[in-house]
Amino acid sequence: MPTVEQAVVLGLTPAEYELICEQIGRTPNEVELAVFSLMWSEHCAYKHSKKLLRSLPTSGPRLALGPGENAGAVDVGDGWVVAFKVESHNHPSAVEPFQGAATGVGGILRDIFAIGARPIAVLDSLRFGEPSSARSQYLLDHAVAGIGHYGNSIGVPTIGGEVYFEEPYEQNCLVNAMALGLARSEGLIRSAAGGLGNLLMLFGASTGRDGIGGASVLASAELGAEDAAKRPTVQVGDPFAEKKVMECSLELLSRGLLVALQDLGAAGLTSSSAEMASKGSVGLDIDVGLVPLREAGMEPWEIMISESQERMLCVVEPSALDEVLAVCDKWEVGGTAIGVVTDTRALRVFVGEEMVADMPVPALVDDCPLYDLVVEPPAARLYPAPSPVLASGASDTRATLLALLASPNIASRLPLFQQYDCLVQSRTVRRPEQADAAVLALPVAPGGIAVSIDGSGRRVACDPYTGTVETVLECAANLACAGAEPLGLTNCLNFGNPEKPHIAWQLTEAIRGLGDACRALDMPVVGGNVSLYNESGGGPIFPTPVVGIVGELPDVARAGRSGFLRAGDAIALAGPFVPALPGSELAKLRGEELPSGLPEIDVDALRAAQEAIRDFVRSGSLSSAHDIAEGGLLVAVAESCLAGEVGATLDLGAVLDAGAGELDRVLFGESPGAGFVVSGTGDALRRLGVRVDLEVLGTVGGDALEIVAGDVRVEVSLDELRTSHSALAPLFA
Amino acid sequence: MRFGVIRFPGSCDEVDAVLACERVPGASAVLLWHRDADLAGVDAVVVPGGFSYGDYLRVGAIARFSPVMESVIRFARDGGLVLGICNGFQVLCEARLLPGALLPNLERRFICRQVGVEVARASFPFTGDCAPGEVLSVPVKHTTGRYYAPADDLEALESRGQVLLRYAHDGNPNGSSNDIAGVSNAAGNVFGLMPHPEHAVDPLTGSVDGLKIFTSMAHAHG
Predict the structure, then answer these.
(1) Average pLDDT, whole number, for chain B?
(2) What is the DSSP string of A264-327?
(3) Residues of B identified as active-site
(4) How far apart are CA A208 and CA A580, in angstroms?
């Protein structure tokens, strides 16, 4: 029998081990301990975050499927629902970036088709150390290649995403993948096992030793120096196998052959079977001797916790088995009945006749202790000031603009996006960098959806509450520029070790901000994922809540664009934009310390401005709309020039006067989610000005960006802007 | 006009190809399953983009041996119209229905972007609806799209007018010989191209220029 020491090696505390003994009335054997250690890991049990997550709003009129299933979903009309979810694959990617990122995409896609939705899009959110470091270059290159390898091969477009480079991610990179799926509302399926005597069937790839212990060893502990030795715990992806499993799953569902469906993700057969039994309030008997193996001599506990990819678990009625197997054969997917639904409410594992584990399902799923966090704001600065790239103080506007455009956090992401198929499935109305959000057409014309994924670790590090509110508003602003109204939000909370009080404080404040922002926008949280212990010898990552919002458009033909469209159009700054430099990209380039706290946000005013922008984009009144994000006003104007391949002439005298003459603050200060650069006819902008603060700045035209701001006169050609904005290209040369 | 679009288990753009065919006035399209040798009496075959059988071996190398491809090879030898797009182009080269081969892109990365493709020869059955020299806006998306043929074969292709499409404006995205984007066989009834005309059939998603390939096929069929 294993000992308490072995339980600790598997990631349990001595107290948790005692509790397990109490729950099952004896000492757990080797198989049971392996199963419990995973079910009670942070990754599966959310034991440090579950109590906080209960504060998030999770209902709304358009919600079709809320948290608790493999993915959430919102109603988009005409009987269609859009399912979506974001999930992290951070630690595997830090250890083996290509496979880590690839299987991150594979895993989130399985979550989508596990509820009966056809995957229609992937987005990703990436964080690395500064691109000057060789390690960051390696991680970036391989993670991007891994995402492309999986998404491109399986025929699901990668339509957007974001990437930021900051020193605190140097050792612990972040790879979050989001997927969207489309389903008929009546076609959604749940994961609850049911029907005594029904068969539990495993289909897809065979089971090997890859990924054993990934959820506990990799995902629920800090990264350390010995992590290279953990490479075998990273799974290996096979997109062709997943393509077949996906088509097979969708055909099984469309023929009405399944009682329940669940993907195998973290903790493999262990968590998928326990979750299915728990949701259906039934028991399951599994014979691991029937599981098709890819290597000989695997122990029962290894079979139970293997994280081999591209596998699904389903419940079928015995009478349907032959037809199910015929569909599996059509797609050349292996399918094997490995168990049966019982009324014991126990997960029992057999090898043939011999029972090797017997565990109450409620103990596995519901009885893991949930911890209250010890919360304390940090006593000292957690993050060192960044290394300066620009001299501080008064500077040359032209040089500052070009330095910002070339900053790795602002430069064009096309060198990444061009490695992803953004077109397959023929729905993509706005490709990456054509608009602030990606836009997809829905099956019933002319409707569509827009989606954006956002996170701003540095600003959340300045102020976890306000920074998280900003993150949500910034993401919603992207949708407004496309003309979309938010329907629901998914999130991935990437934080350090929550057992440290200052990290617990970041997490608590961020979740409070997330809840408040979602309530202010009347937008439910449809699901999400928590990734903790993102720390290494170098300290914690920036606290990084990543949010993905899906919204709807009535007419995709009027989807917004970020680029200026027509010479002669007027350009305006719209919205309650109150720029500030502390915490901005320019402050980072100047090597300034992060401020403690960010300016308070008038959320209602921002919401009203976003609604006005959305209405004007939807009615076709604006030629372009682009939200002012990193780098501030002048960077946003330059981006609209570049996206539209046309110049602009601006006179910033009026905004400069309003800004008390502080040139850098007005031109480069940030106020996330609050300001927009719009273009259109003078008449359209006047009408917009009735609903929202608006200042006309100039005119679209020419082949340069010309600015007059008081005594300052700057002219930068489009070619110069483009050269600076292409700064990431050499990383992929 | 009835198009048949092959569906391998790893095909990705087969539904897109069906949608494109269906935009041709008077045309319809059906999917043809890879294990089925029956071409269902279609008037033309489209071998679509994707990763046929995973393509972990050389791209298209396994697909040419599938039951449906055995039938497509016979169909082509009898003069039937066969269009291969991206992975379909690779499969047709492996099946020796088209000359040359597709090699990994010079930059050895997947590349997805809109390119200009110049119509080097405007003639039925595949480019008859285009004007000579016209530049079509069509996307490419591939890792293995560098067209290669030995020098003698290239010269023969060029002199016989088998090169129908070339990458325009120094925009060769993959290092293809002679900027070749699409070639036909000597008989002119089999055509393969790396750009995706089926992803350029709707103004909403970017361009309608690719539709001309499909309408040309329909007009040629009569």
Answers:
(1) 96
(2) --TTHHHHHHHHHHHHHT-EEEEEGGGS-BSSTT--HHHHHH---SSEEEEEE-GGGHHHHHHH
(3) 86, 196, 198
(4) 54
- DSSP line for chain B: -EEEEEE-TTBSSHHHHHHHHHTSTT-EEEEEETT----TT-SEEEE-SB-TT---SSTTTTGGGSHHHHHHHHHHHTT-EEEEETHHHHHHHHTTSSSSEEE--TT-S-EEEEEEEEES---TTTTTTSPTT-EEEEEEEESS-EEE--HHHHHHHHHTT-EEEEE-TT--SS--GGGEEEEE-TTSSEEEESS-GGGSSBGGGTBSTTHHHHHHHHHHH-
List the catalytic residues of A.
43, 89
Percent of chain A at pLDDT > 70 equals 96
Q: What is the mean pLDDT of residues A482-492?
A: 98
Band (B37; pLDDT cuts 50, 70, 90): very high
Given a cut of 80, is residue A230 above it in pLDDT? no
Quick check: bond before B125 cis, omega within 30? yes
Mark out chain A residues that contact chain B at CB-CB < 8 A. Answer: 145, 148-149, 152-155, 238-241, 243-244, 247, 331-332, 417-429, 431, 441, 556-557, 732
> Are A155 and B113 inside 8 Å of each other by CB?
no
Tokens of residue B96, six digits: 């020796």
**How near does any CA of chain B get to the CA of A364, in Å?**
38
- Segment A152-177 shows an average pLDDT of 96
Do the beta carbons of residue B56 and residue B154 sit within 8 Å? Answer: no
When CB atoms are compared, the residue of A148, A155, A331 closest to B110 is A148
Chain B hits for A556, CB-CB cut-off 8 Å, are 204
- Residue B29: both structure tokens together: 């399209």
From chain A, pick out residues whose CB is under 8 angstroms from the CB of B202. 426
Q: What is the mean pLDDT of residues A595-620?
A: 97
Residue of chain B nearest A432, judged by CA positions: B113
In tens, the pLDDT along A372-419 reads 999 999 999 999 999 999 887 667 899 999 999 999 999 999 999 999
- In this prediction, residue A220 carries a pLDDT of 57
Residue of B nearest to A142 (CA): B109
**Could you say which of B51, B112, B141 has the minimum Cβ distance to residue A240?**
B51
- The DSSP string of B177-199 is GGGEEEEE-TTSSEEEESS-GGG
Please list every residue in chain B whose beta carbon sits closer than 8 Å to the beta carbon of residue A413.
none
Task: Inform me whether the C-beta atom of residue B31 falls under 8 Å from chain A C-beta atoms.
Answer: no
Contact A647, A704 (CB under 8 A): yes
Question: What DSSP character marks residue A656?
Answer: H
Give yes or no for B67 touching A (CB within 8 A).
no
Question: ipTM of the assembly?
Answer: 0.96
Any A CB within 8 A of B206 CB: yes
Q: Which residue of A has its CA nearest to B111?
A: A419
Structure tokens at B161: 């007018």
Nearest Cα to Cα of residue B90 among B80, B100, B82: B100
Q: Across the interface, do A426 and B204 touch by the CB < 8 Å criterion?
A: no
Q: What is the pLDDT of residues A341-354, one digit of tens each?
A: 999 999 999 999 99
The tokens describing B57, both together, are 């071996």
- Residue closest to A679 by CA, chosen among A536, A569, A583: A569
Q: How far is A429 from chain B, CA to nearest CA, in Å?
A: 5
- What integer pLDDT is reported at residue A90 of this predicted model? 92
Q: Express each pLDDT in A664-678 by its tens digit.
A: 999 999 999 999 999
Q: Which of chain B's residues have a Cβ under 8 Å away from the Cβ of A244? A: 9-10
Cβ distance A153 to B112 less than 8 Å, yes or no, reads no
User: Which chain A residues touch B54 with a CB distance below 8 Å?
Assistant: 153, 238-241
